[in-house]
């Protein structure tokens, strides 16, 4: 699910110069799971941080229709404060205020859809875990997993998927296919044929975490969080996509 738009128009020449420099770090969003609604119909999360290049604090809140695997309007709520606070406490305070203001804007929809913080992270694969496979995750469906129960097997494959605008910036963009095998059934959860503009210029993907929820009176549901590298001003920016459904 595409979570990000290019915030500032950058000439192709400038981007070309940036891409010709040694690889540096862009900004990596922090992720805050707001969780599922009690009945599992909706899922929400926030990504936030300090934008590379500008130094502006930002917050983005997404509310997803789990079965439709689509954003619930007027989500996503995106807020960026165009203030360069510099490093240290001033930056932390500006980010805190930005997040609070954005949460206030999103709160009516979060309440309407009864987001209740439900869900359990049953698989977590941060990019700092150097021995893990970024494209593979095999997990138990929940903490009470018993010997002999079927695990959930996720596989992500990347492939070249050119975008004309991104090619003008010198970016080699990629799409991905995500499959799930569970109880002997293979499902394709995502297979890109085009790149949504809201992804900016995606360069790479990894399976970051897997969250499940078992409502008392409804089928279990899941959310796969994909971390995406995309073209940034000072190196790849890292943002999140959520792919949801029923188990």
Please tell me about this protein's structure.
With 247 residues, the chain is α+β, with helices and mostly antiparallel strands. The protein has one domain. The protein has helices at 12-20, 89-112, 164-168, and strands at 30-37, 42-50, 57-65, 70-71, 77-80, 115-118, 120-124, 136-139, 152-160, 174-182, 185-191, 202-213, 221-230, 237-246. The strands form three sheets. Strands 1, 2, 3, 4, 5 and 6 form a six-stranded antiparallel sheet that branches. The longest helix is centred in the middle third of the chain and has 24 residues, at 89-112. The model is unreliable at 1-23 (pLDDT under 50).
Provide a quick synopsis of the model.
By secondary structure, this protein is of the alpha+beta class. It has helices at 12-20, 89-112, 164-168, and strands at 30-37, 42-50, 57-65, 70-71, 77-80, 115-118, 120-124, 136-139, 152-160, 174-182, 185-191, 202-213, 221-230, 237-246.
List the helices and strands and how they pair.
Blueprint: H1 12-20, E1 30-37, E2 42-50, E3 57-65, E4 70-71, E5 77-80, H2 89-112, E6 115-118, E7 120-124, E8 136-139, E9 152-160, H3 164-168, E10 174-182, E11 185-191, E12 202-213, E13 221-230, E14 237-246
Antiparallel strand pairs: 1-2, 1-6, 2-3, 3-4, 3-5, 7-12, 8-9, 9-10, 10-11, 12-13, 13-14
Structural class of the secondary elements?
A: alpha+beta
Uncertain stretches of 5 or more adjacent residues? 1-23
Task: Tell the overall outline.
Answer: globular
Tell me, rounded to a whole number, the average pLDDT.
89
**Sheet with the most strands, sense and barrel status:** 6 strands, antiparallel
**Cα end-to-end separation:** 18 Å
The beta-strand count equals 14
Tell me what portion of residues adopts beta-strand conformation: 35-45%
User: What would you report as the Rg, rounded to the nearest angstrom?
Assistant: 18 Å
């Amino acid at each position: 699910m595409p979570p990000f738009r290019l915030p500032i128009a950058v000439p192709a020449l400038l981007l070309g110069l940036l891409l010709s420099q040694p690889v540096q770090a862009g900004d990596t969003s922090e992720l805050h799971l707001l969780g599922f609604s009690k009945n599992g119909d909706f899922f929400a999360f926030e990504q936030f941080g300090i934008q590379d290049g500008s130094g502006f604090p930002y917050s983005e809140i997404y509310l997803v229709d789990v079965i439709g695997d689509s954003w619930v309007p007027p989500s996503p709520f995106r807020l960026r404060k165009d203030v360069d606070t510099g490093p240290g406490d001033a930056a932390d305070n500006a980010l805190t205020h930005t997040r609070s203001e954005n949460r206030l804007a999103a709160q009516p929809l979060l309440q309407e859809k009864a987001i209740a913080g439900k869900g359990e992270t049953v698989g977590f694969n941060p990019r700092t875990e150097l021995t893990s496979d970024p494209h593979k995750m095999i997990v138990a469906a929940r903490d009470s997993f018993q010997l002999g129960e079927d695990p959930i097997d996720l596989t992500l494959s990347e492939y070249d998927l050119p975008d004309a605008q991104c090619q003008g910036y010198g970016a080699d963009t990629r799409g991905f296919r995500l499959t799930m095998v569970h109880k002997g059934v293979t499902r394709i959860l995502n297979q890109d044929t085009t790149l949504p503009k809201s992804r900016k210029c995606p360069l790479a993907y990894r399976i970051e975490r897997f969250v499940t929820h078992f409502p008392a009176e409804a089928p279990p549901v899941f959310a796969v969080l994909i971390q995406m590298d995309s073209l940034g001003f000072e190196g790849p920016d890292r943002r999140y996509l959520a792919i949801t459904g029923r188990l």
